[in-house]
Specification:
Elements lengths: L2 H4 L2 H24 L11 E3 L20 E2 L9 H19 L6 E3 L6 E2 L5 E3 L4 E3 L4 E2 L7 E6 L3 E5 L7 E3 L5 E6 L2 H8 L2 E5 L5 E10 L2 E10 L17 E7 L3 H14 L5 E5 L12 E5 L6 H10 L5 E4 L4 E2 L6 H10 L5 E6 L5 E10 L2 E7 L4 E3 L2 E7 L1 E2 L3 E4 H7 L11 H6 L6 E11 L6 H7 L3 H13 L3 E5 L1
Parallel strand pairs: 5-14, 15-16, 15-18, 16-17, 20-27, 22-28
Antiparallel strand pairs: 1-3, 2-28, 4-7, 6-12, 8-11, 8-13, 9-12, 10-11, 13-14, 18-26, 19-27, 20-26, 21-22, 21-25, 23-24, 24-27
């Protein structure tokens, strides 16, 4: 039986207090009499995107009922297709790689002070490194070393008495007999990148005796803001956009319902019908496309012509009602600037779900649909987060343009836009914001295109295999 088990509770507390007091006293003694603390290991670097790392991505598991996307790849060219996909993915990783992808684990009980989250510099521009210092150690002589790989270091306003080696080089050494002088010199250390890049990084290695640490430098070209003037009312804030195809009676009813509630708001129509007709009305821009280019091509065209901060997407057979409140969409978006998409409901349809993605190994990633798991938006109880939402939504124009709609998906796409925007677009659905769906009318010409052949679905699954690098998906 251990000693601790033999003690009474009161004695145990006194014992633990004595042990902790001894530990505190020992630490005080070591630092007061210049005794070094136990050696701390070098800060570890974990970079899953580095070719030199031992990291191996794990294979993801596909839920029961998933589509195996290998089955939709041409068997005769399978090896070449997989090779080309791997080459493209490697280039994609290079473009997406960031110095901040590396996980830096800092040692405990270190006297080194540094910007643990790193700092940002402009390409080829000199910047002081914030927060460098050494604390809690009293010695007769001090020496620190800093080193980088993609830039040079220097001490600004260097004096003749300052003992500095490696000025404007990759390795900088500072020696002094005073802690105050050391920290004064460290406060004037600058970094300048020597390799031009608008989006890259470097690592600074900071060493003092047995203490070592690493922190990142983010090299980034500052971006110029792109702002939208909201103006005075909803007409200068939102453009209504839709895609028309073979359903002019429905389009005209949609326009009529919009004008009932918003007589001046701009309407943009992308039209790829075979026999094209002019949609009459004020402040309507109708763009005629080659026939049957598809829904996503039409969305791209319509959104490309939007000049307002937001656009409201509606299908051509929707109908505005007194519950279709564009102003409320804007209020929600403006109150939560991090949002990119705010959706409503269509009649009783509140279609939305979450996507779960695993990167996987060289075979590809796994994507699955999860329904019934909702997270309420703080401060807006009528809204909740989702990965995919219904076709009735207000979106931030610049954010959607960055993702875009893949024109290869002609008549078998909606959720695919949100798949491409996963991790880029933050979407919520607010079912209280509602629009009506027109009664369906017989239209045999449209129906032929509304329900495409199985071959179109197979092409879409192959696209997910290559473009989205998926090995399986459950939709």
């Amino acid at each position: 039986m251990s000693l601790l088990k033999l003690m009474s509770s009161s004695c145990l507390l006194k014992f633990l207090f004595a042990v902790s007091s001894l530990a505190v006293f020992a630490l005080f003694y070591l630092r007061t009499f210049n005794c070094p603390l136990p050696l701390q290991p070098l800060q570890r670097i974990y970079d899953p995107m580095s070719p030199n790392t031992s990291y191996q991505p794990k294979s993801c598991s596909c839920p029961a009922g998933s589509a195996n996307l290998r089955d939709y790849v041409n068997k005769d060219n399978f090896s070449d297709i997989v090779r080309r996909r791997a080459e493209e993915y490697e280039k994609y990783q290079t473009r997406k790689k960031s110095i901040l992808n590396q996980l830096l684990l800092a040692p405990a009980n270190s006297p080194l002070q540094y910007p643990i989250q790193g700092f940002i510099v402009s390409p080829l521009q000199k910047s002081l490194i914030p927060g460098l210092g050494v604390h809690g150690v009293q010695k007769q002589n001090y020496q620190v070393t800093l080193s980088v790989s993609s830039g040079v270091l220097a001490v600004e306003n260097l004096q003749e008495k300052d003992q500095v080696k490696g000025q404007d080089e990759k390795v900088l050494s500072i020696s002094t007999s005073s802690l105050q002088s050391l920290n004064d010199l460290l406060g004037r250390v600058s970094y300048r990148s020597t390799v031009y890049s608008i989006k890259s990084g470097d690592l600074v290695h900071f060493t003092f005796e047995q203490y070592k640490t690493i922190f990142p430098v983010v090299i980034r070209q500052p971006t110029v803001p792109v702002l939208y003037d909201l103006g005075e009312d909803v007409n200068s804030q939102v453009t209504v956009t839709t895609k028309a195809f073979l359903r002019y009676p429905e389009v005209n009813r949609l326009v009529k319902s919009i004008r009932q509630f918003y007589k001046d708001i701009k309407i943009i129509i992308a039209d790829d019908s075979f026999e094209q007709q002019k949609v009459d009305g004020d402040n309507i821009e109708q763009y005629f496309m080659p026939p049957a280019q598809g829904w996503f091509a039409g969305r791209n065209l319509a959104v490309s012509q939007v000049t307002t901060k937001y656009f409201l997407w509606v299908d051509d057979d929707f109908e505005f009602t007194e519950r279709t409140k564009i102003e409320r969409f804007v209020e929600i978006m403006e109150s939560k600037p991090e949002l990119d998409v705010v959706a409503g409901s269509v009649g009783a349809n509140k279609f939305s779900f979450k996507l779960v993605y695993e990167e996987g190994d060289e075979e590809g990633g796994c994507l699955s649909r999860v329904s019934g798991t909702y997270h309420q938006v703080p401060g807006i109880p009528e809204c909740y987060y989702a990965s995919v939402v219904i076709n009735f939504f207000l979106a931030r124009t610049d954010a959607v343009r960055k993702v875009g709609f893949d024109p290869l998906l002609k008549r078998v796409g909606h959720s695919e836009f949100f798949m491409d925007g996963l991790g880029e677009l933050l979407a919520v659905i607010c079912p209280v914001l509602n629009i009506s769906h027109q009664k369906r009318e017989a239209n045999n010409n449209y129906r032929k295109f509304r329900h495409p052949p199985q071959s179109d679905g197979n092409k879409k699954l192959y696209l997910h295999f290559f473009k989205n690098r998926l090995k399986c998906m459950k939709w």
